[in-house]
Amino acid sequence: MENLYDLIIVGSGPAGLSAGLYGARAKLKTLILEKGKTGGQIVTTHDVANYPGSVEDASGPKLIARMVEQCKSFGAEMIKDNIVEVNIDGEIKVLRGEKSEYRCKAVVIATGATSKKLGVPGEKELTGKGVSYCATCDGDFFTDLEVFAVGGGNSAVEEGMFLTKFARKVTIVNISEELTCAKSIAQKAIDHKDIEIMYNTSIKELHGDGILEKVVFKNNVTGELREYEADEEDGTMGVFVFIGLDPQTSLFKDKINMDNRGYIITDEEMRTNIEGVFAAGDCRVKALRQVVTATNDGAIATITAEKYIENKLGHLSEANA
């Protein structure tokens, strides 16, 4: 069968690149498809200090560049294309993109998830320069500074408490008059000596010359706007946004089992409910979404896919020999 890949990976974040590396090293004909910027969310992180083996000047772009180089050195192909339709039920999976059509024996879905944005002026420009979406990734860079954690759910409040390990003060910015997290978690935050809670408050603007220097808050009851500037000695502060994630799985909606939030359901070996289809990284149901867990998922997905191809589709390999 002409141009039949053993393995196609949709997405080129850490999970997809890990899957691609393992596929290429196993001598599988491997293709990584990406519609946008290679690397996923991690390329917006300027420092990656919590990935094992990271060097002092490790950054998201540098880490991804090394992963891409590894994949290519073992023979993995990488193509930029936006997949618009998939047929994944048969032995041969078909993915149709805007540029071409691709066929394979197994698919690893590694499309990731994106943090929900505030959607306010200055957010995009100051992401990675004071605005963050990951306390575990970036909390250490705000040691002894003041930070604001936006959101009132479990994740937001728990991440806010985590940030007190580094920041001298954490303010939780909550859109309504009550936190929506579990009452036990809310009480811990209320009782915490280094946490303040701003109720009925939204962030309307973010300002700074290359680094976050000023936040404009809105009182959602009175409509009053208030500007807050970073301490002069600090020069900056942090805004951590924890208002949810959007899994990038719409392409596979109604084709594969997902939870009610759109995350793909897999077993521990990354199998989905469709034979020959696997999922890895932030797009699947899991407890922790980090680079280290994404690369783990990618490796497991490809090893499982390799066994599937050998055991279930050996006749295709023989026919194509």
TrEMBL record:
Keywords from the UniProt entry: FAD, Flavoprotein, Oxidoreductase, Redox-active center
Recorded catalytic activity of this chain's protein: [thioredoxin]-dithiol + NADP(+) = [thioredoxin]-disulfide + NADPH + H(+)
Domain FAD/NAD(P)-binding: 5-298
DNA repair in keyword set: no
SUPFAM superfamilies: FAD/NAD(P)-binding domain (SSF51905)
Gene Ontology molecular function terms on file: thioredoxin-disulfide reductase (NADPH) activity
Known EC number: 1.8.1.9
Regions annotated as coiled coil: none
Family classification: Belongs to the class-II pyridine nucleotide-disulfide oxidoreductase family.
Cross-referenced PANTHER family: THIOREDOXIN REDUCTASE 1-RELATED-RELATED
Oligomeric form and interacting partners: Homodimer.
Stated name of the protein: Thioredoxin reductase
Biological source species: Romboutsia sedimentorum
